Amino acid sequence: MTDRLLNRRGLIAGSLAAGSALAAPGAMAAVTAPGGRTSRIADASLRGPAMDLMTPQGNVRAAAKLQGNLDLKSDKYTWYDGVVSAVVPGRQVTNLFGFRGMAASRLVPLEGEPGYRLLNREFGAYYDLATRQTLDTWRNPLSDETVKVVHLTNDPVNHLIREWLSPPPVERAAAAMKLERRPLQYAWRVQDDRLLMSRHVHLFYPNALDPKVWVRESSGPMVQASEYTSWNLSLEDMQDAALTSVDAIGNWTRVTPWLPWMLLGTAPGHCLYETFIAKETRYEQLPADIRNDAEKRFPLFLKSPEKFVEGSGSSLENYARMNKPAPPRAP
After folding, report:
1. CA 145, 151, 153: angle at the middle one, nearest 5?
2. What are phi and psi of 62, to 5 degrees?
3. Three-class SS of residue 59?
4. Closest by alpha carbon to 123, among 295, 250, 320?
5. Whole-prediction pTM value?
6. Interval 138-181: pLDDT, tens
7. 15 φ, ψ to 5°?
8. Which of 25-39, 265-279, 293-307 has the lowest mean pLDDT?
9. Is residue 267 part of a domain?
10. Cβ atoms within 10 A of the Cβ of 55, count?
11. Where in the sequence is the domain holding 161, given as residue range(s)?
12. How many domains does the structure of the chain reveal?
């Protein structure tokens, strides 16, 4: 939501950054229309007619059409909603709280090479699973302690969409990743009239929260996290040259250390995020509770950034900048 929670960058924006899987064998099969279905785009397939999804050039245009709007002026919206669970060795997995939010993104052409910058900012709010009310405090069942909830606010989350694989937007993660120069190729697949795509990224990088300083917040000297994203969209919409953007639905999963505000330090275990995720062309398409959170609590995130700014930090860096280490817990 890179990145993105906890250290995610690019939730969320569901980002299509480093870690994209290569196209699966057999993915080049053309669409097979159910009997009687009228096709709006004749012979729509991975190969065209508007773009060839088996080439870097086609992948750039498809990613831009999915992540943003090729009119180069309109915002594209991503929303996500799901559950965060606690995974502790030797114990049953437990649901902790809900997580929902949105990102606003806009495309800007790259200079000197084909591709785009994706100007993006995102928020994620934690909520009570029973009432769906946004949390301000939360009783941690793992420590039996009431803690202050710190919601996700990542601004900016800048992505690159170009003909070569790009590093994740979290600078610490990008610096630690040995990324080979490979042509951009996502794992597209056609099923009937739907276009499917999946990607994953595994991150391992130095923690912005030094465990010697952030004793109760830091999960350790290194951050180990993984994200898995899948998309389901209309093949005809993607191959319709008249459309500058395409809506999609999917799933986003993140495996990540304990959130710093949970005050679990280096306790064994981790968080597991499992959410719906969707790309929408119009703001009014977003769920009402997410729009309510945005308008009342996070109004800055209703629009994409005005201009590109170098550098995208992680939510852990944001936490370190906006908070102070918690005092030792009273006996």
Report:
1. 155
2. -65, -45
3. helix
4. 295
5. 0.88
6. 999 999 999 999 999 999 888 899 999 887 766 666 666 676 78
7. -55, 150
8. 25-39
9. yes
10. 15
11. 56-307
12. 1
**Token pair belonging to 77:** 């919206």
pLDDT exceeds 60 at position 22: no
Q: CB neighbours of 20 closer than 8 A, spacing ≥ 6? A: 165, 184, 185, 186, 187, 199, 201
Token pair listed for 260: 């710093």
> Is residue 90 a part of any domain in this protein?
yes
Cα separation, 21 vs 43, whole angstroms: 26
* Contacts (Cβ under 8 Å, ≥6 apart) of 321: none
How is the chain split among helix, strand and coil, in percent rounded to 5? 15, 35, 50
First to last CA, the chain: 37
DSSP assignment of 119-181 equals EEEEEEEEE-TTT-PBPSEEEETTTTEEEE---EEE----EEEESB----S-HHHHHH-----
The tokens describing 168, both together, are 């994740």
Is residue 42 one of the residues assigned to a domain?
Answer: no
Model pLDDT, residue 256: 98
Question: Cα–Cα distance between 213 and 61 in angstroms, integer?
Answer: 45
> Looking at residue 24, what is its pLDDT?
40
In a domain, 128, yes or no: yes
Q: Give the amino acid at 289.
A: D
